[in-house]
């Protein structure tokens, strides 16, 4: 124990992501025992004392706060984890950077490019360690897809296709805003499916296939008015309920993306497919352990899509878990991000995606919204430099 270095976490927000990140911190010592750095669950923060206290007790935090500014002001917090709705990311992250804290921020980095730029400048000026929870990169089958593309097995890439389909907002009686439904309030969320769902697809796509150069998008808001939780009045809905866009990647391939919360029958169907000169791969969140792979170089009579069960010891991250052939799940992508973040403290390298990487994703999201609003192609201005 003595040789370990401890990072005291201040968790802000105790909802879905607050829980799943905390689970990640709790697993690190068990599955990566040799790592030099370990988290301590120092403080959690939620606005209502009874909720914050219950979270503290249930998840094993040492203390709680009801004002996030107190977390930032505390000398016994080394890293701030931002798990609040999107409208709070910038203010908290900038304050945390100015206080010299490490920052682990949920996605999307911000509501707008302007907000994201302020955050990026703040962490770079302060020189604090930072990462953004685009967790899908760390599902072993997705990491394997990245490795296969990087190895050149697909050859020249022609197409990148991604969908993220849900169906939970079809009911017109669903209000907007408030604790549970902030995603439907544009002031809190910044955008609808573009920032919530497509941001994930864009992050994965640029990580695997390089920068997105320009976009042509279409959005729709199917339910135009909803009662706002704060006012009790019917108000115009400002988010995009559905969005599709096409794009050019820097490498010359074409991209096609779709996200919606109006695809009856789909809860969280994130899929992508990449078609190259020699081979193709595809992946599906509902069957997240598998990676489908088609290799044109296979002998003709047995050529076909193969389904790789990404559970063997030489698959990404899988040497840490159980035995070959047994699966892990969604929560493990966050555990892997915790592990990579803590390992990066030891190596001194960045834990990608950093604020800079997420800033590039933000540029694509904003270009998508602008393109849809103006019915025009938009350059993204992305400078994608991640090479790993
Ligand atoms: N990486 C992913 O796959 C993923 C998945 C879901 C959500 N997210 C992101 O995580 C963030 C949080 O989403 P969620 O699903 O956990 O939301 P949630 O509604 O479940 O939780 C939000 C939490 O923030 C707290 N909060 C709100 N205002 C606060 C304040 N002023 N001070 C302290 N706490 C406050 C709420 O009480 C709640 O506990 C969002 O940015 C969202 O986009 C990412």
Automatic annotation (TrEMBL):
**Occurrences of domain Gfo/Idh/MocA-like oxidoreductase N-terminal (ranges):** 7-132
Keyword Oxidoreductase listed: yes
Q: Which domain of life is it from?
A: Bacteria
What Gene3D superfamilies does the annotation carry? Dihydrodipicolinate Reductase, domain 2, NAD(P)-binding Rossmann-like Domain
The GFO/IDH/MocA-like oxidoreductase domain sits at 144-282
Q: What SUPFAM superfamilies does the database record attribute to this sequence?
A: Glyceraldehyde-3-phosphate dehydrogenase-like, C-terminal domain, NAD(P)-binding Rossmann-fold domains
Keyword terms: Oxidoreductase
Q: Please give the InterPro entries that the UniProt record associates with this protein.
A: Gfo/Idh/MocA-like_OxRdtase_N, Gfo/Idh/MocA_oxidrdct_glycsds, GFO_IDH_MocA-like_dom, NAD(P)-bd_dom_sf
**Protein's UniProt name:** Gfo/Idh/MocA family oxidoreductase
């Amino acid at each position: 124990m003595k040789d370990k270095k401890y990072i005291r976490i201040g968790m802000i927000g105790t909802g879905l992501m607050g829980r799943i990140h905390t689970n990640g911190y709790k697993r690190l010592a068990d599955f990566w025992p040799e790592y030099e750095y370990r988290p301590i669950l120092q403080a959690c923060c939620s606005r209502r004392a009874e909720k914050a206290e219950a979270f503290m007790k249930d998840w094993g935090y040492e203390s709680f706060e009801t004002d996030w500014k107190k977390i930032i002001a505390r000398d016994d917090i080394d890293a701030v984890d931002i798990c609040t709705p999107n409208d709070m990311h910038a203010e908290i992250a900038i304050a945390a950077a100015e206080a010299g804290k490490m920052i682990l921020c949920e996605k999307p980095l911000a509501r707008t490019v302007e907000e994201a730029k302020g955050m990026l400048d703040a962490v770079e000026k302060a020189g604090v360690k930072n990462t953004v929870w685009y967790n899908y990169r760390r599902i072993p089958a997705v990491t394997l897809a990245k490795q296969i593309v990087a190895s050149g097995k697909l050859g020249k890439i022609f197409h990148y296709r991604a969908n993220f389909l849900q169906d939970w907002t079809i009911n017109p009686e669903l209000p907007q805003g408030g604790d549970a439904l902030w995603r439907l309030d544009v002031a809190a969320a910044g955008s609808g499916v573009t920032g919530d769902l497509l941001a994930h697809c864009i992050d994965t796509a640029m990580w695997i296939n390089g920068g997105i150069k320009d976009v042509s998008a279409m959005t729709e808001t199917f339910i135009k008015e909803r009662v706002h939780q704060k006012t009790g009045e019917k108000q115009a809905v400002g988010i995009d309920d559905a969005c599709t866009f096409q794009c050019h990647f820097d490498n010359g391939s074409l991209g096609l993306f779709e996200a919606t919360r109006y695809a009856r029958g789909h809860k969280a169907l994130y899929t992508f497919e990449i078609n190259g000169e020699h081979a193709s791969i595809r992946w599906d969140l509902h069957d997240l352990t598998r990676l489908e792979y088609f290799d044109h170089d296979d002998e003709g009579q047995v050529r076909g899509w193969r389904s790789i069960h990404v559970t063997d010891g030489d698959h990404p991250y899988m040497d840490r878990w159980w035995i070959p052939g047994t699966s892990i799940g969604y929560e493990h992508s966050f555990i892997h991000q915790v592990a990579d973040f803590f390992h990066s403290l030891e190596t001194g390298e960045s834990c990608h995606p950093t604020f800079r990487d997420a800033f590039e994703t933000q540029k694509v999201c904003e270009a998508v919204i602008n393109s849809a609003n103006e019915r025009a192609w938009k350059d993204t201005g992305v400078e994608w430099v991640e090479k790993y």
